[in-house]
Every structure is written in structure tokens, then in C-alpha cells.
Amino acid sequence: MRRSTALLVVAVLAGLLWTSRSNPTDPAAADAAPAAAPPPAAAVFALDTVVFDAGRCADSGYLCEGLAAEGESRAIRWPDGTPGLSVRVPLPEGVDPAVADELQRQAAAGIREWQGRPLPLTLLPPAARDQTADVEVHWVRSLTDDRVGQAAVRWRVGPEGAELAVLDFVLATHRPDGTPLDPHRLRLTAAHEMGHVLGLPHSDHEDDVMYTFNTATRLTFRDFRTLEVLYSLPAGALVLTR
């Protein structure tokens, strides 16, 4: 893994936390490995098993490598029938109003990179507090341990199948050393975190926005292809490779 310069982005699944860390020598975004997942719920509730051979893996973006790296070989995604996700991105506080407007715009733009892939995304007006959002962005000035953002996602399996819920989605306006975050880097960080919200694992290639250390400049074909394949699998399916 190339640990060059970067902002670290982390995720947590089913108690799995994705966080973003910064490296003061480079403004890129990056991810740390998520915490270990809980014991497979499939021991109680039967779920599908999908086998990928080398050819199928090669045509699946980084799905096979990413699931293996995360230590949880499951198709963790929003279940079929999910009508879409509503997202609220409020203005960050404690920064210059013009900067706050740009940070809000870039964060929303990064999230919208996934529009319709595969779910419709609805950006709720920040002031419409009477509407509950599936994804609520929270701003902080800075996080500890060089983090610049994080998302927490709960995944579980019940009698009616797999369920997914977003517990938190945090973006920082500054690095831990007090340096303001570049809005373009923030856009990529928001896109990376939203990819995890949709169920994407980490990529094994530095050009992809879902690479552990996000050195990408945009979302790639592999990012979109991996998501397409993920959502072609049964939600919660055990994914085996051979």
C-alpha cells in the first residue's frame, strides 16, 4: 500500500467506522482499515452464497479484493426496494460564511457523484428540520488522530433479510493541525464516505476514489463497476472467491 501523502478516510460497518485522516505533506484523502465485523449473522438467518471465480472477479472492479481486505466477505448494500436516500448537508459553523458556502457546496457535490448509482439521492434543504434524512452530515472543526471525516454504518440481518442504516457522517473543516481543508479535497472525501454508505469496500488501486489513501481526482469506471456488481448480488450474501 502506498502510504504517500493523504487525508485518511475510515469506515465502520455494523459498528464499522470509516474515518478520514490527514497527512500534512499532502492534501489528498485516504482511508484506514475498518474495525472487525461482528460474527456473521448468517449463522442464525440463512442468506445466499455467491462464488466468484477469477474471471468474474476480474469483471467486478475491486469487489473481490476490497471485501477480502475488509475482512467481511458479504454483499453489504441497501436492500432491494429501497426507494432512495435523502441527504442533508447543512452549512458548517465557525468558518467564514463564504468558505462555509463553498464547503457545503463541495460536500453536496461529492455525495451527488453517486446519483442514481444505483439509488436516487435527494438533497434536503438544510433548514427543513421537519424532514428526516437517511444521511445527515455533521460538521466539526477537526477530529483527533489526523482524521478529517468519518461515517458509521450499521449492518445487520433479521428475519426479513439484510438491513443497512447510517449512524453518522462527519466531515471536518480543518485538519487536526488547524490547516483549513481544501474544498476540492473535501469533495473527494465526501464522495469516498458516501461510497462506503452505499456499501463499497476499499479499492486496491490508487486512481479510484475508494482507494484506501484517496489519491484520485474523480470517480472512476472501476468505482462505478464495483457498485454495479455489488448491487447485482443478493443483499447480505456471503461472497466466496476461488
TrEMBL record:
It comes from the Bacteria. It is an enzyme of class 3 (hydrolase). The keyword Zinc applies. Keywords: Hydrolase, Metal-binding, Metalloprotease, Protease, Signal, Zinc. SUPFAM superfamilies: Metalloproteases ('zincins'), catalytic domain. The keyword Protease applies. Residues 185-231 form the Peptidase M10 metallopeptidase domain. This is Matrixin family metalloprotease.
